[in-house]
Amino acid sequence: MESHSHEFVQRAGAALHNPTLQQALGRAKDGFVLKRFNAVSALSEYEALRDRAVQIKNHTLEHLDHYLLRYEEAVRRNGGVVHWAADAEEARNIVRDICRKAEARSVIKGKSMVGEEVGVNEALEEAGLEVVETDLGEYIIQLAEEPPSHIIAPAIHKTREEISDLFHRFHAKYGYTQRLTEVPDLVNEARQVLRQKYLSADVGITGANFLVAENGCNIIVTNEGNGDLTSTLPRVHIVTAGIEKVVPNMEDTTTLLRLLGRSATGQDITSYTTLFSGPRREGDPDGPQEYHVVLIDNGRSTMLADEFREMLRCIRCGACMNHCPVYGAIGGHAYGWVYPGPMGSVLTPLTLGLREAKDLPNACTLNGRCQEVCPVRIPLPDLLRNLRHRQFQARMGTKRSRWGLALWGWLARRPAMYRLATRVQARLLAGMGGKRGHISKLPLGGNWMAGGRVMPVPEGETFMSAWKKRQGGRG
Question: Rounded to the nearest 5°, which phi and psi values hold at 242?
């Protein structure tokens, strides 16, 4: 997928002024938050599960080479083939070669974020293959020729009216000429169209939520069952997964599964949780003739070796973006690449480079909600601060921002001068507000106040002086 992360500021501005997008985001965001809250509140051991999940992921990352080799050995015992891809280009080439050797003409795909990351669809379409997404959200945005805007709800930015228009336009060639407007009717029509794609596909490609080292299984969780059909009906099944997806054993996997559904969609468990362990065996009623797993690095080894290792604990639940005020205001497309929201603000600069995605680490208020809800306790605000520090060290910001930060740092290291400066600032701001009680114009604050936003007038004294008074002069 082509990156537009360098256009974040422009794309965010356009999103804020898109009434259709704002309508779609407004309908969706509260549902995710409330459902998660209810599901988590009903599970008394939820915090203990989070602690256990952190231990599992940290242990696995500490011994990642060992568990990956165990997984590869188990897949081979089951009759499958494991391929190793160092980067996106190698991953695309591997998938394309498997399809070519299978003499495939049509491919169906289950939802796979790593597939989006390495550009599988584009590579196969360039090779002349028909590629059809089977997850309903992914299918909708494929028709619209758009990337996903959310990792678990790819078409969250689309209104029902827009989806109705898409289906009316693209399904006529299959004999569906009536314009439908009700959600059940739209879902049923998509199901009817996709059914023929399942039956005629040569290759099915899925992602994996977890890879189990002890038995070679890959686990996918869905609410539509499309992943199961994609995995079992075509004669070739290809699994694409990042190397961090491996988990030591089934017991550890159940811990992570109990967190995943609750954090993602507010469900105790998703409708379908399926284990696949290889090609069809003698006596099996269905299943592929060939089973391939493509393990993808694409920068993950670099993360493993530096201060961003904790990002590899991510189980792709989407809770961080569901609770992010920035994502909730602008949606996913503004981030310009596969991973939006707080997780994308960390992953995109690490994968594509800080210069390509220089605005993303700063697209955060550091309010901490993402860390608070993350099921594996990833300290996303700390990681974003680390990226900002790297940018400052590399002199990537504007001269004005660098000078401003340097001045603030110089003052912060001199407490007496810092207190004096803040007292002067508080009094100046109080004077600027006058009798109005608010400030409508502020030096260097033009963008913040552009939409009519105003700032309340400070009381005229600093927090430190007010605290000292409250403590009776004790400081």
Answer: -70, 150
In a domain, 438, yes or no: yes
Structure tokens at 471: 């403590």
Q: Find the domain containing 448 and state its range.
A: 415-470
How is the beta sheet containing 218-222 ordered, strand by strand?
246-247, 210-212, 218-222, 272-276
Residues with Cβ within 8 Å of residue 260, at least 6 apart in sequence: 209, 221, 270, 315, 317, 375
What is the pLDDT averaged over residues 352-376? Answer: 95
The reported pTM is 0.89
Does some domain include residue 191?
yes
In a domain, 180, yes or no: yes
Return all residues near 448 (Cβ < 8 A) that are at least 6 apart: 442
Residue 81 CA, distance from chain mean position: 28
Q: Which two tokens stand for residue 475?
A: 């400081």
Note whether residue 280 is domain-resident. Answer: no
Q: Which residues pair with 219 in a beta bridge?
A: 210, 275
Query: What is the Cα–Cα distance from 334 to 348, expressed in whole angstroms?
Result: 13
How many angstroms separate the CA atoms of 325 and 322, rounded? 8
Condensed to tens digits (0 to 9), the pLDDT of residues 121-144 reads 999 999 999 999 999 999 999 999
> What is the C-alpha to C-alpha distance for residues 15 and 21, in angstroms, rounded to an integer?
7
Q: How many domains does the chain have?
A: 2
* Spatial distance between the Cα atoms of 37 and 372, rounded to a whole number of angstroms: 12
- Distance of alpha carbon 23 from its chain centroid, rounded? 21
Last residue of a domain, one of 201, 225, 256: 201
User: Chain-wide mean pLDDT for the chain?
Assistant: 92
Give the tens place of pLDDT for each residue, 168-178. 999 999 999 99
Which of 201, 228, 254 is the endpoint of a domain?
A: 201
3-state secondary structure labels for all residues of the chain: CCCCHHHHHHHHHHHHCCHHHHHHHHHHHHHHHHHHHHHHHCCCCHHHHHHHHHHHHHHHHHCHHHHHHHHHHHHHHCCCEEEEECCHHHHHHHHHHHHHHCCCCEEEECCCHHHHHHCHHHHHHHCCCEEEECCHHHHHHHHHCCCCCCCCCCCCCCCHHHHHHHHHHHCHHHCCCCCCCCHHHHHHHHHHHHHHHHHHCCEEEECCCEEECCCCCEEEEECCCHHHHHHHCCCEEEEEEEHHHEECCHHHHHHHHHHHHHHHCCCCCCCEEEEECCCCCCCCCCCCCEEEEEEECCCHHHHHCCCCHHHHHCCCCCHHHHCCHHHHHHCCHHHCCCCCHHHHHHHHHHHHCCCCCCCHHHCCCCCCHHHHHCCCCCCHHHHHHHHHHHHHHCCCCCHHHHHHHHHHHHHHCCHHHHHHHHHHHHHHHHHHHCCCCEECCCCCCCCCCCCCCCEECCCCCCHHHHHHHHCCCCC
